[in-house]
Amino acid sequence: MEIRNDMGVRVYMETKKENKNLGSYPLCISVRDFNMELAINNESTSAGSSGSLNLLEFPSSPAIEEYQSEIITESTQTYIEEGQVYQDKQTVAAAMKNYSVMHKFQFRVKRSSHRSYWLICVAESCKWHFKATSINDSTMFKIRSFSRQHTCCLMDETFIQRKRTAAVLGSMVVPKYCDPKTVYTPKDIQTDMLSEHGLNLSYMQAWRAKEKALQFLRGNPCDSYNKLPKYFYILEKNYPCSVVKLKKAADDCFLYAFVALCTSINGWQHCRPVVVVDGTFLKSAYRGIMLTASTMDAAGTIFPLAYAVVDSENDASWKWFFEQFKEAYGERPSMCVVSDRHESILKATSVVYPGMAHYSCMWHIWTNIRSKFKKGHLQLHELYFATARSYTLDEFNERMLKIEEVDLRVKSYLYDIGYHRWSRVHATVNRTFTMTSNIAESLNVVTKDARELPIFDIFEYMRTLLERWTKEKLSKVKGTFTYLGHKYNKELEDNSTLSQKLRVRASTDHIHTVLDGVKRYIVRLENKKCSCGQFQLDELPCAHALAALRHRNETYENYCSPYYTRKSLLLTYEMPVNPLPDEGKWDVPQHILDEVVKPPAGR
Questions:
Q1: What distance separates the 2 farthest-apart alpha carbons in the chain?
Q2: Do residues 491 and 540 touch, judged by C-beta distance below 8 A?
Q3: Which of 26, 283, 533, 568 is the most exposed place for a label (fewest CB within 10 A)?
Q4: Which residues have a Cβ under 8 Å from the Cβ of 40 and sit 6 or more positions away?
Q5: In this predicted structure, what is the pLDDT of residue 23?
């Protein structure tokens, strides 16, 4: 019996339990160092019936300790010499490929096995050679012989023409593409290779190196779809109560995928129920559309709720998206949707959320006005946005008359859309500060570079984005001690500054007349209303309300929406997005691993 590893020890111990006489035989311990072998035969060394091994003690080999302290794990080793020890054959092979690029020569493999790696120059008469072998039959490889001097005359052109150059160069620039946001063009590769390694590459060679690097890093886009079942299984396992859905066609081709993590579902309860949805194009090999749903947290920043990948923005895909969204988030009182008025979104919400208010993004309507009527001058721009943001009907009507004076067609267009879809004062549900779909557009900007990734990496990018944002925002709010979140605290401070010049006359305990020059405003603190309209529509004390509160020596805390408070912000991010284990350690049932997901048909 030969014992070479831990498994061999376990087999020996189990065998000895069954055969008591096995312990009477001597153990022979062999230690091989370099090309010498030391055999230690100890006839008195035996394993007794108790199951313990009594081995002869001897000093450990200094050479082996040296291997452990100088094992090279990186393939980007710039200096290679005899005696170096590498963690495995793959590392030493990659290191030699990089070495050949830097020194502008080519080699060929003379012998390669699990125990040896022998290289010689491509020139027959050249004496350059390299030899590495394993240490003690382990995975580690040591350089035994290295003659670095070439006796041939290879030109740079010979090196450049080798087909494997793209793969070697690609492996060297892989770290440049680990972050999807990094912009590293073929031109950059040309410049860096020339300055760092003296290699004069053509643009096409640099482009091939970039493609190889992306292939090494991201794999085959087709294979990415097959990884979704196990990835979604791990998401559900690590984030209980999440809603993760994958829909396939009858032929197992990918159709839709949807993710709403439990951390977002938990945080949604502490945010105003205003959902901003949008779709953006993917740039990966199989294209498609990424749909997102977001809201604003108590700091006035983006809080992503759900994300999905579908074939296109059509009736079926948006309906499926909202069905999954409703399963995850349900329906809350005063809930509304803000979008770019895509026809399919309007149809889907009317089916899945009948009766729910649906508002249009102000910017999208303005873009349509500019396109439809060729009207984009500053006066109309300012009039339109001021009209949309009006707090009272008097303000709204006055500004609409001015729009009519500029262009009657624009007024008719806005009327046909429906005032309630874009005007704050006409809204059936109070959406406060969410007048545009800017938070969705901002999320699209953040994910711009990730949209080139294969589908598996897109979903993982979104998860890590939530993980990072949750941690950063929670740390920030823990270091903030104002009663309100940042955005709303700033609004309150601005209103407080304006309130300093106002005069107040109390009518009753809760009704005050506030004088601003010649203008007069009535503040009803008990109802949280002001005749200016701002107090009730923003759900935040306006300048007039703050003046009345100061007159009563009362603080503002009880007159702010709970969705703006630091407490709500802490509750929104109280559940962390914990990191996922390494893919190699995922414990996935076999039936999940066997599930097939093919790339989308026809794309």
A1: 112
A2: yes
A3: 26
A4: 28, 29, 30, 31, 56, 58
A5: 64
pLDDT, residue 124, reads 77
Contact 542, 535 (CB under 8 A): yes
* DSSP track, 120-140: EESSTT---EEEEEESTTSS-
Per-residue b or e along 292-317, where b marks 16 or more CB atoms closer than 10 Å to that residue's CB: bbbbbbbbbbbbbbbbbbbbebbeeb
- Separation between Cα atoms, residue 485 and residue 162, nearest integer Å: 60
Contacts of 522 (CB under 8 A, 6+ apart): 511, 512, 513, 514, 530, 531
Task: Please compute, for residue 559, the number of CA atoms within 13 A of its CA located in the half-sphere on the CB side.
Answer: 27
Comparing C-alpha atoms, which of 430, 444, 281, 421 is closest to residue 346? 421
CB neighbour list of residue 534: distance below 8 Å, 6 or more residues apart = 391, 540, 542
Long-range Cβ contact pairs of 316-319 (< 8 A, separation 24 or more)? 317/256, 317/289, 317/291, 317/344, 318/291, 318/342, 318/344, 318/345, 318/347, 318/348, 319/344, 319/347, 319/348, 319/351, 319/352
Tokens 């094992």 locate to: 71
Q: Is 395 helix (H, G, I), strand (E, B) or coil?
A: helix
Provide the 10 A C-beta neighbour count for residue 179. 10
Vertex 24, ends 18 and 28: CA angle to 5°?
105
| C-alpha to C-alpha distances, 372 to 347, 364, 369, 396, 409, nearest whole angstrom | 23, 12, 5, 23, 10
Determine how β-strand 336-339 pairs with β-strand 274-281. parallel
Place of tokens 């060679």: 205
DSSP string, 572-585: HT-S--PPPPPGGG
Report the C-alpha gap between 454 and 219 in whole angstroms.
8
Residue 6 confidence (pLDDT): 75
**Distance between CA 107 and CA 109 in Å, rounded?**
7
**pLDDT number for residue 165:** 65
Q: How far is CA 437 from the centre of its chain?
A: 21
Dig out the tokens for 250 from the structure: 């009858």
Helix axes 543-551 and 486-499, enclosed angle (nearest 10): 70
Distances in Å between the Cα of 464 and the Cα atoms of 62, 320, 577 are 45, 25, 8
State the Cα–Cα distance between residues 523 and 495, nearest whole angstrom: 14
CA–CA dist 300, 490 (Å, integer): 11
* Paired strand residues for 310: 289
Q: Which parts of the chain sit beneath pLDDT 70?
A: 1, 11, 14, 17-25, 31-69, 153-165, 167-168, 180-181, 215-219, 375-376, 602-603
Share in percent of the chain as helix, strand, coil (round to 5): 45, 20, 35
337's tokens: 């949707």
- Residue from 107, 125, 104 nearest 117 by CA: 107
Block residue for tokens 């559309």: 289
What would the two tokens of residue 357 be? 């208010």
Q: Which residues pair with 244 in a beta bridge?
A: 259
The CA–CA distances, whole Å, from 380 to 163, 360, 601 equal: 61, 19, 47
Indicate the angle between helix axes 186-197 and 203-218, nearest 10 degrees. Answer: 100
Identify the pLDDT of residue 57. Answer: 45
Amino acid at 514: V
